Amino acid sequence: MKIRVCAVVGIIAVSVTACSFDSQDKSSSSSGSKIERREKDNFKMVPFHGEMKTTDLPLGIEALKKNHLEVSATKTIGEAFDSYKYAEEKKWLETPSENGPHYIDYVCWFHISPVSSAALQEGVVKRGVEIKFVVRGDGETYIAMVSRIDITSDGMRHTTVIDPSQIKKIVTAIYENKEISF
Prior knowledge:
The chain contains five helices and five strands. By secondary structure, it is an alpha+beta fold.
């Protein structure tokens, strides 16, 4: 009987120790990955956009919309993106932060015609694009990421990050009021 009691106590002690090591490993790796995602190097500027400086404060949606991209020195970001005729629905979303950059997203949904026949066969019923701008406190502004958003007939949302080499093509299409092809 003593052997059974000792064995049970030993198993419980080993289980508790193993669980505590496992939870420590998970918490340290997950907090580490959160820090890595927020580091400056992950928001590298896309070379064709260059830096855009603004003196308009606060650095929010309206300030961003008054700014220019290298694609056009005459047309502002707001003029180009707000008048994009291939988008049936457009919205701007802002995520401000006290000590870091502001994130401003431009999300637009296309008329169903730009969805390719291959996408329709895959069940895509709605397609959009999300452009994530970063506005730093000193006015440095750039596009950090562009994603294609597909909604399928089963209601699922699928997001595909666009390769940085393709960002200029998408932004140029918006500025020139041309259909975006993926």
